[in-house]
Amino acid sequence: MPQTFTKSERLCSKKILGELFKKGSASVRTFYLFPFRVLYIPQPEPGPDSEPLLPAIVITVPKRIFKRAVDRNQIKRRVREAYRLNKALFSQTGTPPATIAFLYTAKQIISFEEIEKGMKLALKKM
Asked: Can you give the pTM of this predicted structure?
């Protein structure tokens, strides 16, 4: 699996985003794992010969906590890189979810190593 992060892996659809963030939706699963709150929609059961696709992801950092766009962008870059390096874990654990939202919940900017550790645990948990 190449370590790339293509356009097809970015979640852009307003319809799917609305579904992912809809309160009380039965199809959305969620869990907290520092420094993330992870929301995801499981993939429908694939056929026996079809290969599971990589999930589309979105990364959000709250403007309320990080007022400066520079800080929000730095956190998003770190989270995106941690995901890109560790998305191969999906091929080891089975069927990946269809869509994932990573909500950054820490109150300060944390190191890439801590973000990567949280990302690995989150990907294994899914």
From this structure: 0.85
